[in-house]
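> @MW can you paste both from yesterday?
MW: sure, first one:
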Amino acid sequence: MALKHAILAALQDGEATGYELSKRFDVSVANFWPASPQQIYRELDRLESDGMLDGRLVEQSSRPNKRLFSVTSKGHDELAEFVRVTARPTAVRDDLLVKVVALDESNADAVEAAIKERLEQCEAKLDLYRGLQVTLLGNLSEGDYLASEPRPGSYLALLAGLSFEEGIDPGAGGR
C-alpha cells in the first residue's frame, strides 16, 4: 500500500485541507499507516498532479488562504482497484525486536530502557485510541454504532489499533 491509498481512503469522508487530513490521519489510519504532515502535503500535490485529486483554493480574509482537496473519479477508480487487489501479508519491522534479539549482559539495561519506553508509548496510544472510541460511539453501543454508521471503516481500523497496542502492552487489560 502506498500513502496515496491511505489519503484517498481518508478523503472518502469529504474534502479536506492538508491540515484537516493530517488530523483525520491521527484519528483513523495513523495506527496502521503513520505519515507526517510533510509527507501528506507532498502526496496531496502528487495526487493532484496525477489527476486523482482536485484542489481548490479558498480565499480567506482574516486567515491565510487554504486549499481543499477532494477525490476525482480517477482517484475513486484507483482506490477501487486497490481494494480489489489481494492484500499482501504484513511484515513486522521493529527495531525493538532487533534489540531484544541482541540482548546480552552488556546491553541489558539499554534493552530494558527501550522496552519501558515502548510500553509508555503504547499506553499513550491506548489512551488516545480509547478516547477516540468514546467520542465515535457517543451514547451508542458498539453494535448500534456499527449498524447505523454508513462508513464504519475508521472505527474498525481503530479497533485493530486498539488490539495491536493491547497486544504490545501486557498491562492494558482489554477494552
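MW: second:
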Amino acid sequence: MKPDYKNWMPKGMILTALIVTAVFLILFAVFGLTGVVSGTLKTVLFIVFLVGTVIGLCVSIWRILLYRAFSYNGKRQMSKQIIEGIADYVKLPDGGTGLDVGCGSGALCIACAKRNPNASFIGVDRWGKEYASFNKPLCENNAWAEGVKNTSFRRGDATHLDFPDESFDAVVSNYVYHNIPGDRQSYLLETLRVLKKGGTFALHDIFSKSKYGDMQSFMRKLKDMGYEDVRLIDTANGTWITKWEGIWMELSGSALLVGRK
C-alpha cells in the first residue's frame, strides 16, 4: 500500500473554474454574438461575458498548472520538496511532542515523525468541505502506509487551539493560515502560545502583505516578546523549489522560523 497525500489543488476547484468559464462562454455566445438583445445592452453584455470568459479561462489554466506542480507523483513534486524542506528544520528531543496545524492528508506530520522516531506528533485539521478528500482516516492510512506509528490525528481549529500554553517542543504548518479570513498575525500568536520555551516553530505560507500585513514589524514584535531566532526565508528563490514553479504561486511561499530559549 502506498500513501496517498492527494493534491493541494483539489480537482473540485479545477472543475468549478471550468464550469464557471463554460457558463460565461455560453452567455457570451448567446447574448454577445446573436440577435437576442441589441443596442447598448448587447455591447455591455458582450464586454461583461467576454471578460468573465477570459478571467475564468486564466483561473482554470492557473489551477491546472498548480495541480501539475503540486502532484506528489509528477515531475516537479513541489509539494514533496516543501514538506521535506520544513521537516528538515524540526529536531525534537527524545520523548518530545510536535504539532502540525492544518495537517490535511498528514504529509508534514508524518515527515516530521519519520525524522524524529523517539518523539510523537499530533496533526490537527478542521478538514472542511473545500478539501473534502482530506480527512482523519486518510491521515491514519498514510501513516500506516509509511510505517510511522508515532503520530495521531484529531479535529481542531487553528484559530483556537485546544491545548494548554507551552505544550509542544515544535509546531509546524504548511499553506494553512492564508486560507483563514481574519487577522492572520493573531493566528500566528495563537500557534506560538502552545510552543514550549526553547522550541521551534516552522511555518510555510504565502506571506504577501495583503494576507499578513507588515511581517517585518511582526518579526520585530516577536523578538521584543523574547523570541531569539526569527527568520523569514523566501522559498521561491530555489531554497526548496525552483524559481519557475514560484512564478505560478504569486509568491510560491516563505518560511517563518521562530525559536526562543
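> thanks! DSSP finds nine helices and seven strands in the chain.
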